[in-house]
Design brief:
Helix 2 packs parallel to helix 3 and helix 5 packs antiparallel against helix 6. By secondary structure, this protein is an alpha/beta fold. It has a single domain, classed as 2-enoyl-CoA Hydratase, Chain A, domain 1 (Alpha-Beta Complex), CATH 3.90.226. GO terms for molecular function: peptidase activity. InterPro entries: ClpP/crotonase-like_dom_sf, ClpP/TepA. One of its GO terms (biological process) is proteolysis.
Amino acid sequence: MHGLKAWRAFILLSACAHLLPASSRVLYRPAAGNRPPQISIKGELVQADLEAFTAIAETARQEAVTFMASRGTSTPPPGMGFVNVALDSRGGNIWAAMSIGRIIRRYSFATRVEVGASCVSACVYLLAAGQGRYVGGRVGVHRPHLQNDGVTSARAEKAQYASINAQTRQYLEEMNLPTSLHVRMMQTPSDRVTWLSAQDLSTYGLTRMIPPSPRPAVP
């Protein structure tokens, strides 16, 4: 019964996908062969991405259970996650990022920044949420950007920044990452990017090494 529900949900999502522009930020690839389901998040993160991801995540989770059961196992194949979330984004809405991140962690999805991809700014909160994390591309951090509307007082802006500072620190603690990562973020001005080295990624706990996905065979 659950398999039927998941299949119906997948058909609905697939039908909706054809109505969306080609630049859709949240894309779904169902399980195929030895590959578990994958959700891709590309481009600038906006609030609508949270709604799209929430809808897709449950379908992916259900399909992953069926996928694992069909292989007679409850663990992902080597080099894979239960569901892989592929990231290629230069950031965006930090609140949407943290909300999506909590879904990723709740469902024990794995996060990946493949070779050639970048994960910058708010995207790092998605990467941090992965139960397993692989980075083959670039990861960059900086302080969250505050939009100055010309009306907000300096005092209100300071209070807003303090709130963001506290909530992002708490989020990274939820993900069991060291305070030093938050400090590094806050030390980098919002108009600059600090690119993290392989050693940085390891030190900050942003890589729990999962081998890269197998490349599809060339016909």
